Prior knowledge:
single chain; alpha+beta; SH3 type barrels; 3 domains; 3-stranded antiparallel sheet; 54% helix
Amino acid sequence: MMHERMPELLLIYLDDQFVRSCVLIAIMLSLRFVLVYLIKRNRAILTEGRRHWITSVKNFSWLIMIFGLLFIWWPELKNFAFSIAAVTVALVIATKELILCFSGAMLRAGTGAFTIGDWIEVGANRGEVIDFNLFSTTLQELDRPPNDYSFTGKTIAIPNSLFLSEPIKNLNFSKRYTFHRFSIAIDAHFNIADIRQWVVTEIDQCSADFIEIARRYNAFIEKRTGIDIPGPEPRIMISTSELAKCIITIVIFCPTEKAGELERHITQGVLERVYRAGKMVNPV
């Protein structure tokens, strides 16, 4: 008799929304775990393509669970249609930040502002995008000047609601080549023309091994963005400060990994020439 009632009891349990919800969540979480495991395959370092797949699997599993739960509970929700309005208002007030995060995710997806592997800046946060979902975006933090092209080793999880209040700057072109700007302050009585000429000559020598690639990459950026940007030739600007100092501002289009090295080399060379000139003016 008990064996005959087992199918009937099983149908009753499966017809219960709570049980079906638990089954759906268990299946989706298990499937997501298996798919992520198959993509990783015990690899310590993941490529951008594999991170893309892992992020897609996670996001799609969440979407399927959300829509599946809505489908399961829809009959119950219809029975309380009038109460839902009041509950919805309360939920909107209580989950305002989550709704803003979801809206920020929709803005990101709709505009295509960035994807996995891009360098971005949002407010005070700069880094490489390593993961994103419906509510937050995870960045591998980039350092601040003068080491602003190297990673700090920290990760930042920023809420997607920040995209609604802060501009999203995509720095992806800076991953390979960048317009690196830095300034050197010296006393105004030194011969600026000689120092400027040395800087130009030194930059030409240092950039001889990558200037052709820089020109092609510069042209590629112009074609990709449809914007007329400055060429790869170095730019040197002279100005003064309120402390009667001469400010030499240098802009170099160079490989990102060489930017800090070039800045240190040129700064050291300029200061050495200033020191020697000062020794000649004021001999010991």
